[in-house]
Amino acid sequence: MIFAGYAGETPLFRRLVVIYLVLWGLEGALRMWVFPALGNQLYFVRVPLTLLIYWETFYSGAWPKRGGLIFAAYAFTFLCILIVLIQAYFRLSFGNEELLVAAVGMYNYCFYLFLAAILACRASQETISIVTKTLLVLMIINCPVSVVQFWAPASSWLNSGISLDPSAQFHSLGIALGHVRPSGTFTASNGLAALIPFTFATLIAFVLVSPRRRSIDVSARLMWVAAFAAAVALAFCGSRNVYAAVAIVLIFGVFAGLLCGSNRALSVSLMLPAAAATIVVIVFPLVFPTSTEAFAARIQSADASEADSFLLGPLGRGLYYIFNFVYYFDSTPFFGHLLGIASNAVGRSATVSLPPEAALWREAGGWGGWAEVSFSKHIVELGPVVGSGFIVFRMLILTSSIRLGLLAARNAGNPYPLVMASLVLIYMLFFQITSQGTDIGICWIFVGMFFAICRLESTTDQSRCRPSAPS
Predict the structure, then answer these.
(1) Which residues does 261 contact at the CB level (< 8 Å), separation at least 6?
(2) Against a cut of 0.85, is the pTM above it?
């Protein structure tokens, strides 16, 4: 069993989770526009709050005692500590900088695994609804910010921050025609890449069932305002990954509606593809011509580049992101190079040297940066065996989420778990959940939230107001 039974929650736990999400959503704003000199320290701004959640959970006697998530958290924490000790013994130079990188690697891999396990067994229906509302509000806040950032120059304080120190400034990715890829209140576009698909997933679950059967307590006004904000942000995001994530959510939503069996779910699921196509193909070019033109130019240039490098063009690049970790087996030591060596921490450290294989990557015909993709990072940081084990762990979460979502839609007529499973798939398969701070911060919230939803679906209390342990 991935998750344990219901362990109970307190109002304090609920408030701490909400504050955690607010900090996740506003961390980038603090680093760029409020305290730019503390950018590196604010990367860990959620750590004290997360420790409070752990302390409150342990103090209240609700710490998970069983379940696959908590077992994985213990196992990978032990393995990461062991690997760092072995790497410190065999690495030619292992000073303070290497120790700092390894500590950041430990944080990236293990720290939030416990949070997912706690959410899975503690979050009630009320907590899930509050988490949903908080993320929808963050989506509404980020919409106007992302639109203004699209029109602002890359060097403006909106995109690079207010710091006068070039090393403390942030650099947004470009789209085309002189426009940047908005990051909203985050330091990178990954935040919008989480909020936009989440909002559409919630919207699909919202419209597939009648109000009295909805699993979440979200007002129609908040839902539709957030959906409008997500649509506008999607028009200006300039990211093919976000469009692909929304497409995956849409596909899961259609299947969820077809499996639920109700007339409402069936009719809405059949209308979803037509509605999405109408918005993207007709509405966006008419209402947002500049952003649509910039995105089209971006697609054209990227497709041309990828067609020269991959047999299947953009599809080949997508598959490469999943399978390119196999290229690192031969050149990686059994226990990896250094935990955290492929994370953003090394990019900000001038004293930690990359292994010789990194310099030879391009010469050997590698595409992109060395260990640029999430799965490949596991191999070079943990070694071929443990790294493969972490990849298997991600695949187990992915397959379990799809299986549980299908069961909920088919047996209980509830589309919510299957639609939310699309977010788990996106993060487990594509996102950099052990190296990019924004992805790390929200990924395990989504995982824990999903399994909490499945736990609530499996309870005997159909009202879902006060869930009991699974029967």
Answers:
(1) 413
(2) yes
Domain that holds residue 31: 11-458
pLDDT at 452 over 80: yes
Q: Is 3 among the domain residues? A: no
36 within some domain? yes
In a domain? residue 470: no
State pLDDT tens for residues 226-261.
999 999 999 999 999 999 999 999 999 999 999 987
Number of domains in the chain: 1
Which residue from 313, 309, 280 is spatially nearest to 295, judged by alpha carbons?
A: 280
431 within some domain: yes
